[in-house]
Amino acid sequence: MTEKRVSALAGSSSDETILAEEExxxxxxxxxxxxxxxDLDVGKQSEGNLVLTNRRLVYxxxxxxxxxxxxxxxxRKRLYVSDVRELDSIPWDASNITIPxxxxxxxxxxxxxxxxxxxxxxxxxxxxxxxxxxxxxxxSSRRKNLNNWAPVIERLKSGDQKITxxxxxxxxxxxxxxxxxxxxxMQEKGLLxxxxxxxxxxxxxxxxxxxxxxxxxxxxxxxxxRTTASSEAPFYxxxxxxxxxxxxx
Length: 249
Fold this sequence. Notes:
Blueprint lengths: L1 E4 L12 E10 L3 E2 L13 E8 L2 E5 L3 E4 L11 E4 L14 E4 L3 E7 L7 E7 L3 E7 L14 H10 L3 E4 L9 H8 L6 E2 H12 L5 H14 L2 E3 L8 E4 L11
Helix pairs in contact: 2-3, 2-4, 3-4
C-alpha cells in the first residue's frame, strides 16, 4: 500500500472514498451565522450516522435500527444508527446534512471531562451556516473520538492529509466482496454479525468457516484488520484509508 496526498475536490465522483464513520451521532440541526442571536435548530435534533469522505462530511438520518451498546460504553440510553455502506445509495431524508469540505469555514472539536465529544462545523454554501454533532458511543476503550475529526478535516481541506491507496477490491459477487461490503461502514464486527449481514444482503445461507476464510483472506490482502487475538472470537474492521490517522479506533 502506498500513501498519497489528495485534494478534497480532486478527481471524479468515483474517487470518493469513505474515510471514517461514527454511528448514533446527535445532530443539533442547522443554524444561520448571519442571524446574530440564532442558535442551532434544536427542534430538528435527530440521531444518525456521520460519514467523512475525502470530499465531504455527510450526516445521514433515516432507516434507523436499534443497536446494542458496545462493551465499555458510558451511555445507558438506546442508540439508533442509519446504515451507510455505499455513498451512491444514501436514502433521502429531510434531516440529512451534506457539507462539501471545500465550503467549510471552520471546524472545531470539543472534549472536556463530563461532556460528550463534539464536532462544531461552520460552512458557506451560498449562505453561512453552522451545526454541531455530538458523539454518544463514548468509553474508555476508545482512542479516537469525534473531536479528533477536526484536524483531519482541516488537512483534507488543505490537501495535506495522507491517504493510503488500497489495492483493487475483490469482485462484488465474490464472498470476499460481499464481506467487504458488510464492513464498508467502518465498524468493528464479530464473525457471526458479518455472516448474518452477508446472508441477509445476498439471500443465501453460508458456512461460518467459509465466511471466516473470506475475512482472513481480506486481512492478508490489506483490506481488513483482525482486532482480536487468534485464540479469541474473531472481530474485524475495514482498514481506513487514513492509515495512522484512522478515526475509527
